[in-house]
Amino acid sequence: MAKHNELGKEGENAAAEYLMSKGYSIRHRNWHSGKRELDIVAQKDGELIVVEVKTRRNEEFGKPEEAITDRKIRNIIISTDTYIKRFEIDLPVRFDIITVTGTEPPFHIEHIQEAFLPPVW
């Protein structure tokens, strides 16, 4: 596995551990719908939380959350809709971003709640 893929996996592990330490229940990790993927699907306080995780070694080329494009958001929304239908979920949904920065644990983690809303097309 390429080093950047290993770092990404470590970042997702750190993000999941962070969420669990804050009382979130992890429903799925790396859930796929065709070619689309939801990094983490969690639940807390009667709410479904879809979390996009962005891991970077540093902020030399910008903040990790800046890598989440409108196209990525659209794909997350489409996948979330599929997820909700497949598992027959009737809960409010929130979209969060967790940024993980560093080259090895302990990473710097930032949790951005309600990072975006579903766009109106």
UniProtKB/TrEMBL annotation:
Q: Which GO terms describe its molecular function?
A: nucleic acid binding
Q: Which domain of life is it from?
A: Bacteria
Cited Pfam families: UPF0102
Q: Which InterPro entries match?
A: Restrct_endonuc-II-like, tRNA_endonuc-like_dom_sf, UPF0102_YraN-like
- Please report which protein family the annotation says this sequence is part of: Belongs to the UPF0102 family.
Instruction: Give the matching NCBIfam families.
Output: PRK12497.1-3
Specify the protein name.
UPF0102 protein DWY20_03925
Species this protein is from: Phocaeicola coprocola
